[in-house]
Every structure is written in C-alpha cells, then in structure tokens.
Design goal:
It is found in: Cytoplasm. Its main location: cytoplasm. Forms a cyclic heterotetrameric complex composed of two molecules of XerC and two molecules of XerD. Belongs to the 'phage' integrase family. XerC subfamily. The protein is mostly helical and 305 residues long. The chain has two domains: 87 residues, DNA polymerase, domain 1; 133 residues, Intergrase catalytic core (hpI Integrase, Chain A, Orthogonal Bundle). It contains 13 helices and three strands, in the order αααααααβββαααααα. The longest helix is centred in the N-terminal third of the chain and has 22 residues.
Length: 305
C-alpha cells in the first residue's frame, strides 16, 4: 500500500461514506498533498512513521511560512487520515500524541450597516439585467448569513412563502456543511431583489441552456453560477465602494451574525440561523458586541478612565 492509493481511498471514504462537501474534500486533498511533498523530500514511507516524523512535518510546514491556523488544519487532516489507515490497513498511528499549535484568537470582521448597504447599492447597473442577479446574491448573503457555497447551491424550488400566524413570510432552504439542511427567513429587501431577478433576468439566462436548470442563480450560459463567479461579484462590489481587501462573501455572514446580536437576537436563535452545530462557535460573535459595549462605556462614562 502506497501513500497515493491510501490517500485516494481516504478521500473517497469522505466523499461517499461521510458525504462531506466538495470544498471540504478539496481542502483535505490539498493538505494531504503537502504531506506527500514532505514524504518525497525525506524519502519516507507513510506506513512506518513515528511522532518524531510528524514533528518534522510541522517544521516543514513552518518553513513554507504557513500560518499557525493553516498548520493546525493540516495536522487535523492528517489525524483523520491516520485514524482511517489504522482501521483499514492496521497501520501504526503516529498522530496519537500530536497537538495543535496555539494561535491567537481572531475575531471575525463585521461591516457596518452603511457599508453593507453601499456594497449592495454598488451592484446596481442601469440597463444591465445581470445586475439584478448580482444584487439578489448580495442581498441574500446578508439577509440569510449563508456561506457562498450555500447560496450558489440554492435551487429554484428552495424558495417558498409560508403563512405563519396570519403573516406571510418568505423562507429559503440552505444546504450547509455535512449536507445538513436548514430553513432561514428571507428579509423583505432580499425578497424584492430576488423577485426582480426571477421576473426580469433568470428567464433570459435560462433560455440560453437547452437543458432545464434547477439552480436559482444562473451564469451567462444558463448554468449554475460557480463559487468563483459569486466571489467575483462580491469583490467587484468591494472595489466599487473602496472596501477592497476588507470584504469577502464570509464577511456578509459575520456581519449578519453581529448585527443580529447587536439587535438583541438570542444567541441560540443565531446558532440555528447560521447552522452551527455548537453554540460555542456562535459565541465568538458575542465578543464583538462586548467590545462595542466596552468601547461605548469607556468613552461615555465619566469615571471609566
């Protein structure tokens, strides 16, 4: 058994048996690729390694100027790989004593409401029907806190309007990590933007593809919009508003969570809306709001300083 075969089998295990998302599998593949380079450089057999070799691999990664969090991700991927190999091939696991590096806790960056508004407004291009699609994507990113992969994964049938205690609300089904599904409400601004896109733009794009496409958001060829294209929409909006370098699709998610908590939303509700399996992950956003409280107190209270 060589490393290439074992790693390929492991990735197939993640894809088929554990049904992990494509992006997650690609991340594992990149990390295992770095380990393959380490093995080649040292002419090592992956099935006969010791904890000392893993320490050497960490040094190897540090020499490539990788960040601590990226190194931790590689080690985590390797732990999963060797657990699999220990069960499938009875290979000794050199990862049993491996620990992750301590990294400084980084708070997610949230934009202000005015910055979010400017980003969305910047996508408006008079006379360009494609701009209606771009606006709808930006509105949904902020209205739902969805990951970009979840937005492009929305199908036409995933958007619905429901009656709730006499009030009609719009909701969208999102497919998150591990193929877990959740239903989140769609705000009024997002619904209006989406309706404009569905009425005026999507039929034009769908007509360019002979096959019926279930995707909600289509590209210029009438096929499902790619992750890269959705990223570019966000980056173009960032450039147009002078926020280049500060904005990614995930910033909309951070801002969504922060603004909900600032507005008084219960953290458990925010956890459900974000699709976090643990509230601990959601709690990082409370640190941002606490910082704002501390800042306001320091500047306003006469005996704070």
């Amino acid at each position: 058994m060589n490393f290439h075969t074992a790693s390929t089998n492991y990735l197939n295990h993640l894809r088929i048996e554990r049904a992990l998302a494509t992006n997650t599998i690609e991340s594992y593949q990149r990390d295992l690729g770095k380990f393959a380079l380490f093995l080649i450089a040292g002419n090592e057999d992956f099935s006969h390694l010791s904890p000392t070799h893993i320490e050497a691999f960490e040094v190897f990664l540090k020499d490539t100027k990788m960040s601590g969090s990226s190194i931790n991700r590689c080690i985590s991927a390797l732990k999963g790989f060797y657990r699999y190999c220990a069960l499938e091939y009875e290979i000794s696991n050199p990862m049993t004593g491996s620990t992750t590096l301590k990294t400084p806790r980084r708070l997610p960056k949230a934009l202000s409401i005015s910055e979010i508004t400017s980003l969305i407004e910047s996508a408006k291009r008079e006379g360009d029907p494609i701009s209606l699609r771009d606006i709808a994507i930006l509105e949904i990113l902020y209205s739902t806190g969805a990951r970009v992969s979840e937005v492009i994964g929305i199908n036409f049938a995933d958007v619905a309007t429901q009656d709730l205690e006499g009030e009609r609300i719009s909701v969208v089904k999102l497919r998150g990590k591990g193929s877990k599904e959740r239903i989140v409400p769609l705000g009024k601004f997002a619904f209006v933007a989406l309706d404009d896109y569905l009425v005026r733009t999507r039929p034009l794009l769908a007509a360019k593809n002979a096959k019926s496409e279930s995707a909600l958001f289509l590209n210029s060829r009438g096929k499902r919009l790619s992750r890269q294209s959705a990223w570019q929409i966000v980056l173009d909006a960032a450039v147009a508003t002078g926020l280049e370098g500060k904005v990614s699709p995930h910033v909309f998610r951070h801002s969504y969570a922060t603004h909900l908590l600032d507005g008084g939303a219960d953290i458990r509700v925010v956890q459900e809306l974000l699709g976090h399996s643990s509230v601990t992950t959601t709690q990082i956003y409370t640190l941002i709001t606490i910082d704002k409280v501390r800042e306001s107190y320091s500047s306003a209270h006469p005996r704070a300083k």
